[in-house]
Amino acid sequence: MSDVLLTGSPARHIGKAKYLLVAMSVLFAFLVHLVAGPESWARIYPEAWVWTIAQSLTVGVKYVVNDLSVAGVTLAELTRGLAGIIELPMLALQGALSEGFRFYQADGSVIKIASLPWPAVMFAVVAFAWRAAGIRVALLSFLSLAYFVMFDLWQPSMLTLSSVLVAVFVSFVLGIMLGILGYRSARANAVLMPVYDVMQTIPTFSYLVPVLLLFGFNPVAAMIATVIYAMPPMARVTTLALQRVPANIGDFATMSGSSRRQKMWMVMLPAARQNLLIGLNQIIMLTFAMVIIASVIGAGGLGGKVYQGLKALRIGNAVEAGIAITLMAIMLDQISRAIALRRPDHLVDQPKPLFQRYPLVNITLVVTLLLVVLAQFIPALHLYPKSATISTGSFWNDAVLWVSDTYYTQIKAVREATITYFMRPVKSFLLILPWPGFIAVVTAVSYAIGGRRLALMSLSLLGFILITGYWQGAMVSLYLVAISVVLTLILALPVGIWAGLSTRADRVVTPIIDTLQTLPSFVYLIPVVMLVGVGEFAGLIAIIAYSLPPGIRYTKQGIQNVVKSSIDAADMAGCTQRQKLVNVQLPHALPDIMLGINQTIMFAFGMLVITALVGTRGLEHDTLVAISKVQPGEGIVAGLGIAFLSIISDRLIGQASRNLQRQAGRRPQ
Amino acid sequence: MPHGDTQPSAETLIECRSVWKLYGPGADRIASRHGQDINDQILADAGVFPAVRDVTLDVCKGEIFVIMGLSGSGKSTLLRCMTGLTELSLGELKIKGVDLKTASRDTLIDIRRHTMGMVFQDFALLPHLTVLDNIAFPLKVQGKSREERYAKAREMVELVGLSERENYWPHELSGGQQQRVGIARSLTTNPEIWFLDEPFSALDPLIRMEMQNEFLRLQNLLQKSIVFVTHDFDEAIRLADRIAIMEGGRVVQIGTPEELITHPADAYVAEFVEKVPRSKVVRVRTIMSPADASLTAKPVHAGDLVGDVAERVLSGEGAVPVADAEGRITGSLKAAQVVAVLLNKEIPA
């Protein structure tokens, strides 16, 4: 920056031209606003101009799936057959964990094999947790599993666990394969990366519809949707992890005369295992979140319980299942994290015969066998007796009633005030804003930040939303996200700064945001609906709650990452606390804070989709409706709309942050 | 210690002929268009950077050949060309008569499995394997049986003195220990040519010294042909039979440590040798006067380092006779000559 200022080089003139362009676009928007009447085409995009790609897509997809047949087999028959195969490992796991097996004989008789007794499953999980993550996590696992049993949630929990395990396995294997492809071929990587971008930003509901069409309304469809969702990050992580293996290790493999395959499987992947396992931890959490969301297309299990509970406003059931989800999330996170971070130790990991190396496995096998035999005589071991289950459902229902009775006026006052003075004005502003003006301003800003490429991207993505007829929905989505982000930042920045400055505050804040971030987005809806009911205000609260942690985390890290010598220099120059914060720490932390803002927006878009379940009205609503009407085209196009909005803001803020870093003389990450 | 007496035998293991390595966009195109007629102007115009330029040298059987240069001099790139890790742009490079440029992938794999061993600067140990498994790894790649692998690996682990720790993981070892593993691993396949790429640069000075001694001990035992890359001139002097000094991709001078000190090719080399204590490099033969029959004292050897005989010469009276390897008297050594070396004075050609 400094040399530009000193020399007044051409770059400076371009900089000025950019601001002029933005100013002109704003002026243009204002003029359109003045000229256009309330019903003008510039405010409401005419129906006749809509490119009906969504409807055509629906017809096309339905035709391909149901009617197009090759050798008398339609695609739907094929994929459902495939689903039957994919279902097998899941059924096997589920059967072993909770359902048991039934084999129908030709003569009509049924052979039943009971599932493993629940104490055996419990013992195995706790033993595994102990071995992998230590006594603390083992205890946590024990309490979680005990909770599932006692609250009569054993079967849904085991269903969810089975789906998660199978989906994680499939995503892990596929992700590694694609990751290797991306690592080996730069060309393949260049194709795969943008595909992953779209797969990760498109709302999950969008691809639930095609999956629904192809695989039906059942847990397998949910699992496949989950794999689509969780696989791209694993592929990314794999490529990245392989690229991060020190070059010398690869050279060593070559120098020892390894073939290409030996090098990959005996050296590169094992050497990258720590990062791969961290990726595994991530996909376990993503998978888990998605399995819950997939209850919308019949995943059942714990997510199904929450979904049904919310739909029927039986809050008690939703809360109990929600707590179960929370416990399982924390349990899976802790165990897989411990495995990922574990480093071998010569005292423990001596080369020994298998049966000596893992004594807990042997004990678990013995205990299981014992329990299977005992369960023949003691049915309570096989199925936890209903009479011994607890339910707090009515307590929660009463609690909700009590809260809404007692604080009715206060909650209502806050809600009404927020809606009247904040939400509604913003919403109507965005809705009456003429679209040519909006597009012009965004394009000009994109040009100012990232040049021609970014401007072209914003223009075409917004154009797509406009001509497909989803402009109004997009503005409603945007308004909710914008308001949520502003409110989130108002909360997150001070907390983040405080935690960054004070170790004591950090010690309180960090565990809380860690825990919050392990929770699947779905869970956030429960308390919100309990307290404020359904509607856009509920959506707002849910989005704020969900996107708060990343905002806080990045701000905190930004402050903490300020180079020590800069702080020392500020201290030695005699800065007061406030001067130091304003002049040194905040400017240095700005790039990190920008990243945090970016993450906050991404999280807000992520949660926005889910808030359709509590009655928000933007594009997310369209995707949800598309599921119930089985309209894949509408679902995908509306979903792309949300994806495009989030991609635009991601690229703009990302580029702006890189520009700032360059100005600050730091190498952009 | 390497001895100046042992002249490298005639057999050449590595032959580099006008080797170039170019980097940058269009490097391959430039190389194929201009061939050996390439020059600075062409390179500058094309924006191509020559990491190695026009290097011709031989590495002979049984010698310790050190490539010494500062960072960016192209020394590591040259080593990588010799191992086939980097493909050279121009010229010819043969390992035991096999041209690396035209060798098939299988031939290269075969050469690497049986002829080459390599030690890396930051050890490059496989983090997921124990010490023993790391050392056995090159044999595993060859598909050798478990028993055979471990038997050989135990032998190597003992050779580098880490038997106690064979079941440790790399991250549980100190830097010096890790490099011992790296050394053992590079020797498991009993390679004829041993490449070491700045093997001790990442270690503390004291450990570095210890490892240099260890290296010389092993070489005494195993008699490999060695290419050793370093940026440390003292290390080069200590270890080398011959040194190639590189600057800006070129080899500036090749010679024994003594030749470099007595006849530096240019100011660049001279600057390096200036600070080296001559008494630890210069041998008696280089500074002695013609034989003098009147001397009766016990002779010193022509191949001895001046520093090693200085005390004897200076504590006696007058000159001492010098004998060659067969015991014939070939010269005499005067106290003044020894003092001149000890004072790091220029040595008359």
What is the compact description of this entry?
By secondary structure, chain A is mainly alpha-helical.
Describe this structure in words.
- The complex is a heterodimer of chains A (669) and B (349).
- Chain A is mainly α and 669 residues long.
- Helices cover 80% and strands 2% of the residues of chain A.
- Chain A is built from 29 helices and 4 strands.
- A two-stranded antiparallel ribbon of chain A has the order 1-2. In chain A, strands 3-4 form a two-stranded antiparallel ribbon.
- In chain A, a hairpin with a 2-residue loop joins strand 1 (69-70) and strand 2.
- In chain A, helix 15 runs antiparallel to helix 24 and helix 20 (408-432) packs across helix 22.
- The two termini of chain A are 18 Å apart.
- The relative contact order of chain A is 0.10.
- Residues 1-13 of chain A have low confidence and may be disordered.
- Chain B folds into 2 domains: 61-78 and 99-278, Rossmann fold (3-Layer(aba) Sandwich), CATH 3.40.50.300; 279-342, CBS domain Like (Alpha-Beta Complex).
- The two termini of chain B are 25 Å apart.
- The chains are: A mainly alpha (669), B alpha/beta (349).
- Chain A binds chain B through residues 246, 248-249, 251-252, 254-259, 262, 266-267, 270-271, 273-274, 343-346, 349-351, and chain B through 80, 83, 85, 109-114, 116-118, 120-124, 126-130, 137-138, 140-142, 165, 167-169, 171-172, 189, 195.
